[in-house]
Automatic annotation (TrEMBL):
PROSITE patterns: FAD_PCMH, OX2_COVAL_FAD. The keyword Iron does not apply. Its cofactor is FAD. Keywords: FAD, Flavoprotein, Oxidoreductase. The keyword Oxidoreductase applies. Residues 50-221 form the FAD-binding PCMH-type domain. Belongs to the oxygen-dependent FAD-linked oxidoreductase family. The lineage of its organism: Bacteria, Pseudomonadati, Pseudomonadota, Alphaproteobacteria, Hyphomicrobiales. It comes from the Bacteria. PANTHER family: BINDING OXIDOREDUCTASE, PUTATIVE (AFU_ORTHOLOGUE AFUA_1G17690)-RELATED (PTHR42973), FAD-BINDING PCMH-TYPE DOMAIN-CONTAINING PROTEIN (PTHR42973:SF39). It comes from Rhizobium viscosum. This is FAD/FMN-containing dehydrogenase.
Length: 479
């Protein structure tokens, strides 16, 4: 690109030399966008509309060589760096002000080898991209619950969803990565190549480099699963949640059931008189034989007197996209999350009190059901530490008008504080907003010191700090 003339791209208080900028642009195969480009605003927009940052340069990479060039350019000019995969992260760390966005969103290749049951996936792919390719061969990678989520951020932070109890976290299925480190080198990390770095990348987020390719093992799955929703009136919430908790005590790994509490959207299977009223939803998926799934889910479906029960056989790709309409881009979002070893009566009481004070029609509380295969991995086996959590709460405040910021954010924070006595203290970094930097060390628990040491070796100057940041060991506070 000729004459970038990046008047906003700054190194501290000093403008970056035009010669350096032109040299970077001349060897870059992808596209470079500045505020002068017509599609700049579209390129800097991400899923969470609360994030409104203006990078000096968006380097939309075409391949690993572009990523290497971008990292070296940012390092050599002491520029702030953010890395964008799917742009779906709640904290908004995919974009930065004034610096360089290393944009991987066009690197979307998914290559499946059905013989070895492996997939090679680029970091710009979404979960929908992954499912489309893997399920064509009767194979699947356990991921999240929203098909527009990017595979890169999901994997590096953990990755849990409908298949986690059967096949583990997304990162538990990771075999190797190609990663560009802070010194601008492309290296491979796996259990045998740079195993310390590979350990850190499985849960340590974007702290250690830019992954340009993921290699995953895949798992066999019929294209059809038993899945769907059972909807209850909120008046029955206490009974539903307590019986839900009991029903899951003997649940097989194939069965996962999440709870969603919110105002009912205008879903076609709900009677019109329930639209806009508070409801409790049991969202379940059985990833095995449908007849066996009917038996396994029977106790959950027998709870109370539901308004609607639409559980039945369906394509897994359809179920994976079922919540997409409620999570479209363009809304303002703020999350707070807790991990629970169990769903105690006291915790249920706190949740129900908060539900009676919903600040808006799109705000919700969901309880993710995990454990199973993911819980049978040792805490220290990967950087991801919270293996003992059986339930994950996400307080999802979502709204449209800036005038609602205070009430929605305040509601989420109040519920977070009220649930602290009932939680285990860890956190899922992919659910942490950008104001929780003081929570990172606690989120990793006993794994934090090892992460900080690996960070010191691979990124001593903290080039990759637009994330839930693990500071290099030399700067870890000792007080």
């Amino acid at each position: 690109m000729d004459n970038l003339n990046l008047t906003t791209l700054q190194r501290g208080q000093t403008m970056v030399n035009d010669v350096a900028i032109d040299a970077f642009a001349a060897g870059f195969r992808g596209s470079l966008l500045t505020s002068k480009d017509m599609n700049y605003n579209e390129a800097r927009a991400i899923w969470n509309a609360m994030i409104d940052r203006r990078p000096g340069l968006i380097a939309r990479c075409a391949g690993a060589a572009d990523v290497v060039r971008a990292v070296r350019f940012a390092r050599d000019n002491n520029l702030l760096v953010s890395v964008r995969g799917g742009g779906h992260g709640i904290a908004g760390n995919a974009v930065c002000d004034g610096g360089v966005v290393i944009d991987l969103s066009t690197m979307k290749s998914v290559r499946v080898d059905p013989q070895t049951r492996r997939a090679r996936i680029e970091p710009g792919a979404t979960l929908a991209d992954v499912d489309k390719e893997t399920l064509a061969f009767g194979l699947v990678l356990p991921t999240g619950i929203n098909s527009t989520t990017g595979i890169a951020g999901l994997t590096l932070g953990g990755g849990f969803g409908w298949l986690t109890r059967k096949f583990g976290l997304t990162l538990d299925n990771l075999l190797s990565v190609d990663v560009v480190t802070a010194d601008g080198e492309l290296i491979k990390a796996s259990e045998t190549d740079k195993p310390d770095l590979f350990w850190a990348l499985r849960g340590g987020g974007g702290n250690f480099g830019v992954v340009t390719s993921f290699e995953f093992k895949l798992n066999p799955l019929d294209t059809e699963v038993l899945a769907g929703l059972v909807v209850h009136p909120f008046a029955d919430a206490e009974k539903v949640l307590k019986e839900y908790r009991q029903a899951l005590e003997a649940a097989p790994d194939e069965l996962t059931c999440w709870v969603v509490m919110r105002q009912a959207p205008p879903l076609p299977f709900l009677p019109a008189e329930w639209h806009g009223k508070e409801i409790v939803v049991l969202a379940m998926c059985y990833c095995g034989d449908v007849a066996a799934g009917e038996k396994a889910a029977a106790r959950l479906r027998a709870i109370g007197k539901p308004i609607a029960d639409i559980v039945g056989p369906m394509p897994f790709t359809g179920w994976q996209q079922a919540f997409d309409p409620l999570l479209t881009p363009g809304a303002r979002n703020y999350w707070k999350s807790q991990d629970f070893a169990s769903l105690s009566d006291a915790a249920i009481d706190v949740l129900l009190k908060a539900m009676r004070r919903l600040p808006g029609p799109e705000c919700e509380i969901f309880i993710g059901h995990v454990g199973g295969a993911a819980g049978r991995v040792a805490n220290e086996a990967t950087a991801f530490p919270q293996r003992s959590s059986h339930f994950v709460m996400n307080v999802h405040a979502r709204w449209r008008e800036t005038g609602m910021d205070g009430s929605c954010v305040g509601w989420a924070r109040e519920l977070f504080e009220a649930t602290k006595p009932h939680a285990v203290g860890t956190a899922y970094i992919n659910f942490m907003p950008d104001d929780e930097t003081d929570r990172v060390e606690a989120a990793y628990g006993a794994n934090y010191a090892r992460l900080a040491e690996i960070k010191r070796r691979y990124d001593p100057n903290n080039l990759f700090r637009m994330n839930q940041n693990v500071k290099p060991m030399a700067t870890v506070r000792t007080a």
